[in-house]
Amino acid sequence: MKPCFKVFSACLALLLVLTGCAAGQPDPDETAAPAAGTAAKPEETTAVPAEETTTAPEPAYRDPDELPLINPNAEKRGSIRYLAIGHSLNVNVTHYLSDFLREAGYDKVEVAVLYYSGCRLDQHYDFMVHATAASRLYFNGKGTWSITAGYTMDMALRLTDWDYISFNAANVTNWVPGKLEPYLTEIEDHVRKYQPASHFFWNMFWAYQNDTPENQAKFNNYFQGTQLEMLKGNMSCAKVVMKNHPELEFMVPFGTAVQNIRTSPFVEGTWLIRDFGHLSFDYGYYLGALTLAKSIADIDIDASTFIPPGYEDRFTPEIINGLKTAVKDAFEDPWSVTENPYR
User: How far apart are CA 56 and CA 312, in angstroms?
Assistant: First the structure.
């Protein structure tokens, strides 16, 4: 065979090999950026468009002793829509929430409570899976409250695109984390289907009053005999819940704020708690709403001048400062009771 023919045959063989490789593998430059002046070919994909799968960002892991107390999304954006899934204590702390938020610059505020008396998470779960219309909806959209009976959870979730949704336990089980699952997880998953972009948070409520023999008997039965043991239980439960549920973006320290003001001599009889567990209509409702407004919107507590209408003569400067300080101290140290300086 002539040398030139050998060279030709080798070249032909190499060409055939290269051609076969090209047929079986993609060109490594196929996904490179197109040259200037050329249009990129749309990539074929089966992914759902981003706008159909929008979900709230999942926060990073939190140290249980350093839980977020202020909404990380708080901003003066003109409107806020909040739904509490809970019981009558939610009604207490939201009663003046719209007033504090409007004073702070929110021009459109919608607040709702999906309410069933003393409702535990397992009860909310049972109502949810059976579509039971057992709840009431407390709603405030224009500064006044309305109450509508016969509500299911899904009805409340369909009302609007809620910016914020809160969860909590009934106070008799707040201090027993094991009684919250799997109900909290199931409820959160269900709510997320209806509200893919809503921000979730947890309400840590207060210990009950123990100034009567009847109340003390309840403490003996449920809370190892003391008010402070109940508060410690609520705190421990909140830490467990927040650690195991990173989708809960912040926690409201109601329990600490209430206990802080209890160290003041102002607080006697029904001054703060009117019937073992529920807040008083004046000072109690004010304290609850102020705490919630700070958590959900990071309002400037010192700048607020709101006083519940009809109770103006009761709110002396000393009492206002005492209530505000109790709330501010709760955000400074949510896991300890701080002595209130106002006498």
Answer: 40
